[in-house]
Every structure is written in C-alpha cells, then in structure tokens.
Amino acid sequence: MDFNIQYPTLVEQSYQFMKQLKPDVTKQEVYLQMVESNLIDEDGNPTAFAIKNHLVDVKKAPKLTPEQQEDQDTQQVFKYMKKENFKHADDPENCCIEAKPLISAIKKALADGSLSTDGQQKWSKALKELEQSLNSK
C-alpha cells in the first residue's frame, strides 16, 4: 500500500538538505527529528523557540489597513453563519441578519482566536448589545 503523505514545507525543505548528507534519510525521520528538536510543532508550524533563535525564517504578513482588518474580522464572524441567516431587503447592499445565529457566530469567532484585537473589542461589544436586546424582549 502506497501512502502519499503531505509533509509541511519546513520538513520538505529540511529533507532536501538532509538527503545530501544522508541519502537514505526518510521524510518521516526528518519530521520526527524536527518535532523532537522543538523546531516545529506536530502540525509542522515553526515553534516560538525556532523563531526566537532564528532557526527558521518567518515572513510576516503585510499590515492591513483598518478597513481591510475590519472586513477580515467581519468575514471571520460570518463564516460561521448560513446563507439562510441573511434576509435580503430590496437593496442587495442591505440585508437583515437573524440575531441568534449572529450571536452564535460571534461567540465562535471570539473563541477561535481569529479576530484582531480591535475586532475582538468590536464584536464583544456587539455581542453584549445583541444579548441585552434579546433579553429585554
């Protein structure tokens, strides 16, 4: 049986280098050694130790404009919602959103850590206001 395992980029790069030094090395051996050496975590991401000690090169994502960051935060919340939760008005730019599914989506986005600091503040405030509004009815 032939398994086609996809190894993380850092493992692939290290494997190519190690193969020159030890031709019979396997990708699995490289992966296990990198995890054991605290260069990568089990998912193949560089560890804080590896980054801090400049053992891996990590490119930083370009800084987003405030508008781009707000859009990204909104997408992070809306990804937890279904299309049926959006009730379209006459104007496609305006739509109504059901409160309970929005509350659930905000809680999930806050919990998964995908929101920016500003996004966490904004959506926490919106969550509080929505919950208060529902409780007062």
Detailed description of the structure:
By secondary structure, this protein is mostly helical. It has 6 helices and 2 strands. The protein has helices at residues 9-21, 27-36, 48-52, 66-78, 99-112, 117-135, and strands spanning 86-88, 95-97. Strands 1-2 form a two-stranded antiparallel ribbon. Strand 1 (86-88) and strand 2 form a beta hairpin. It is elongated, with a radius of gyration of 22 Å. The model has no long low-confidence stretch (mean pLDDT 87).
Q: Stretches where pLDDT falls below 50 for ≥5 residues?
A: none
Order of helices and strands: HHHHEEHH
Biggest sheet character:
2 strands, antiparallel
Shape by Cα distribution = elongated
Number of strands: 2
N-to-C span: 61 Å
Q: List the total number of helices.
A: 6
Q: Let me know the average pLDDT.
A: 87
Return Rg in Å: 22 Å
The quaternary structure here is single chain
Structural category is: mainly alpha
**Percentage of residues in strands:** under 5%
Q: Main sheet: which strands, in order across?
A: 1-2
Helix content: 40-55%
